[in-house]
Write a structure and sequence with these properties.
The chain is α+β, with helices and mostly antiparallel strands. Among the domains are: 154 residues, GAF domain (Beta-Lactamase); 101 residues, Beta-Lactamase; 72 residues, no CATH class; 175 residues, Histidine kinase-like ATPase, C-terminal domain (Heat Shock Protein 90). The chain is 48% helix and 21% strand. The two termini are 52 Å apart.
Length: 721
């Protein structure tokens, strides 16, 4: 049970660390937003190195156009076999030159050392690069590590694509602005010339045509989709990239508002925004899905700018369509991840926080605000956090915060919060310190509300205390029932013998010899009752008994001799079959005789209701295949049903009107204390068979071995018949 609890605790700790690392990875996307290729490529291995137990991390990325190195490496201090270039050469030699064909996992041997390597491509075919993580652990990567690496690679892929798109957009926008400005200047100069000299109109028109031709060349050279509209919004021209993507001719595209080029779900909004821009002359910017030539719709960002003449009149509209489908998919994945994270926090009552050590800036998740009972929009600070802490826990919180300021992680700890209504909450806090490349320290942590669990533990302790008290009461009841059951027979014998003695002494002449014999039997039964009490006291005081070599046949003969007269009075025909050469058994002779006596008495009492056939009772001993010695008592009485068999050996369960349900329960305690077993089975004909088996005595048995005692009848050796 402890191993299972420790394993469960280890799994919970692993999941908790994984959750903390996932939270840390999600923060990278915010840090990468608007960043360069170099920043993203350098940050990714650094972040993963703090989360994974690896020997090396290698990143080979595509050229982002900003001077980024083609390969980045993070090596463990223990690696002694050379530079990262050696690893790349070994990978190419083992897996081939094509990165797209590399598997997700491989085993790489360097300088006689085997490394388990995880290879993840950045992009569908590795167009953005590849990440290689290696560890000497054969089981690397684990499930949690695969999840962390996959999330990190996905985040980095999206960021790299956005960085590339941003770079392209900036370049295109700059080129477009420059060329539009040039065109504006040219048109302004042309208009000015027209106003000055009507005669120069033809020359100006020719210059304008040349300018438009150049503009067409410029538009065709842009990598994005470009469409040109008249001031009234009619399609005037599109670039070659637009025709190649859509598969539409210029004439076909002029009917874009009634065709299926724009996704039907997006078409109403596109028409409203486009119509509004044409009417107001203001630039437009929206996102919509455009159909590709193969029928697939992809997301585009559509930006439209008016081109004006010197008098500020609109000459035409230029629209640039930028493919953002991958970005939208990445954003959707991020939104789903955030949604799942928020749902997980609500379900697990766990909130997360970020604490910038240098500025003391605090950021709480929605669930953590709920736990601390902060209103929406509250600026979280250390002061209003301290206001919520229970006064007795302030010292511990101060100590933990000082550790974080020194760059140390906090192990899990619990503190109490004061609710607005005065209620106390118990929360468990876990925090990790992130060391950023610029030297800044940031603490990322999780806070779980464990109030209900603490209350449940307190309730469980109360129930456990009450159960212990009830158990003690039941133990006293069991002891009293055992005493009543076991002392009943000796007391009945004492009364019977005393009555017989009085009758013999009252005879004329008195039968002194008979009276003396009955007096001796009275003394014997009194000693038996006293020994029963002694044995019961020893049981409940957990006193040890002594294991001895016992002849089960001889013990059974003594019990039969003691009960012979009772069996005859009950008209029970007893047949005994003792196995020859039966080995001795380990156990207390008196306790084993008590079990035999209980089985014989139960069988005799069961036969008392039989009147339509002779009352037969068979007792036999035998040696079983497992070298255990077995004793069986078989009767032809009424027997028992299948449901009764399951409860025969339970305490206080009985099928007799005057029974107490103790005898068989006590018998089972005795037999099981000697590592034996006792059972009951229905006969093929009428009646039932009760049996027990105990191990044979061996040399390894120790005479003073302590065993659990059970309540018994006592037959003193000096008084055996």
């Amino acid at each position: 049970m402890m191993m299972e609890l420790e394993r469960a605790s280890a799994e919970v700790d692993g999941l908790r660390r994984c959750m903390n690392d996932l939270v840390g990875l999600l923060t990278l996307s915010a840090m990468w937003a608007g960043g360069s290729f170099a920043q993203i490529a350098n940050t990714l291995p650094d972040a993963l190195r703090t989360m994974l137990d690896v020997d090396f991390l290698l990143l080979r990325s595509a050229d982002g156009g900003d001077g980024i190195p083609s390969a980045i490496a993070r090596m463990a201090d223990a690696i002694q076999f050379g530079r990262s270039q050696d690893i790349w050469q070994a990978l190419y030699s083992t897996l081939g030159e094509s990165l797209a064909a590399w598997p997700q996992r491989a085993v790489l041997t360097l300088d006689g050392i085997a490394f388990s390597v995880a290879l993840l491509r950045l992009g569908m075919q590795g167009e953005e690069g590849i990440l290689v993580a290696g560890s000497r652990r054969p089981q690397f990567p684990s499930r949690e590590e695969r999840l962390l690496i996959s999330v990190a690679v996905n985040q980095a892929t999206v960021a790299l694509k956005e960085a590339r798109l941003l770079s392209v957009q900036r370049r295109l926008a700059s080129e477009l602005d420059t060329r539009v400005s040039q065109r504006t200047a040219e048109l302004a100069a042309t208009n000015e010339a027209l106003r000055r000299e009507i005669a120069e109109r033809r020359r100006a028109e020719a210059a304008l045509r040349d300018s438009e031709s150049n503009s067409r060349l410029i538009v065709d050279s842009i990598s994005g989709l470009v469409a040109i509209f008249t001031p009234l919004g009619e399609v005037e021209a599109v670039n070659n990239q637009f025709v190649k993507y859509s598969g539409l001719t210029l004439e076909e595209f002029k009917q874009w508002a009634t065709s299926d080029f724009v996704h039907p779900d997006d078409l109403p909004q596109v028409i409203r925004d486009f119509t509004k821009a044409i009417g107001t002359g203001e630039p437009y910017d929206f996102e919509a899905r455009m159909r590709r030539s193969d029928g697939v719709y992809r997301w585009f960002q559509v930006r439209g700018l008016p081109f004006r003449d010197a008098s500020n009149g609109i000459i035409r509209w230029y629209a640039l369509l930028t493919d953002i489908d991958e970005r939208r998919r990445a954003e959707e994945r991020i939104r789903r991840s955030e949604m799942f994270l928020a749902a997980g926090q609500r379900i697990s009552l766990t909130g997360t926080f970020s604490w910038r050590i240098d500025t003391d800036e605090m950021t709480f998740s929605e669930e953590l605000n709920r736990i601390f009972e902060f209103e929406d929009g509250t600026a979280v600070s250390i002061n209003n956090i301290v206001d919520r802490i229970h006064p007795d826990d302030l010292a511990m919180l101060t100590e933990k915060m000082e550790q974080v300021r020194n760059g140390l992680d906090n192990s899990e700890y619990e503190i109490r919060l004061k609710g607005r209504d005065g209620a106390i909450k118990h929360v468990r806090v876990t925090a990790n310190v992130i060391h950023h490349g610029d030297g800044r320290l940031e603490c990322l942590g999780a806070v779980q509300d464990v109030t209900q669990r603490r209350l449940a533990e307190e309730s469980r302790d109360e129930v456990r205390t009450e159960l212990a008290r009830v158990t003690r009461i039941m133990s006293l009841g069991t002891m009293a029932a055992s005493i009543a059951h076991e002392v009943n027979q000796p007391l009945a014998g004492i009364v019977t013998n005393a009555s017989t003695c009085l009758r013999m002494l009252s005879a004329d002449p008195p039968n002194v010899a008979g009276a003396l014999e009955t007096a001796r039997r009275t003394i014997r039964d009194g000693n038996r009752a006293a020994d029963v009490i002694a044995r019961l006291r020893a049981l409940f005081r957990k006193k040890a008994a002594v294991v001895e070599k016992t002849d089960l046949n001889e013990a059974a003969r003594e019990v039969v001799a003691l009960l012979w007269s009772d069996l005859r009075r009950g008209k029970v025909d007893l047949h005994v079959k003792y196995a020859d050469d039966l080995p001795l058994v380990s156990g207390d002779r008196i306790q084993l005789q008590q079990v035999i006596m209980n089985l014989l008495r139960n069988a005799s009492e069961a036969l008392s209701s039989v009147s339509d056939r002779p009352r037969h009772l068979v007792m036999r001993t035998e040696l079983q295949r497992d070298r255990n010695v077995c004793l069986l008592v078989e009767d032809n009485g009424p027997g028992f049903g299948d449901q009764e068999r399951e409860r025969l050996f339970q305490a206080f369960y009985t099928t007799k009107e005057q029974g107490m349900g103790i005898g068989l329960s006590v018998s089972r305690s005795i037999i099981e204390s000697y590592k034996g077993r006792i059972w009951a089975m229905a006969n093929d004909g009428p009646g039932a068979t009760f049996a027990f088996s105990v191990p044979a005595y061996t040399q390894t048995d120790i005479a003073s071995e302590a065993i659990s005692l059970a309540p018994v009848h006592v037959l003193r050796k000096a008084e055996r018949p």
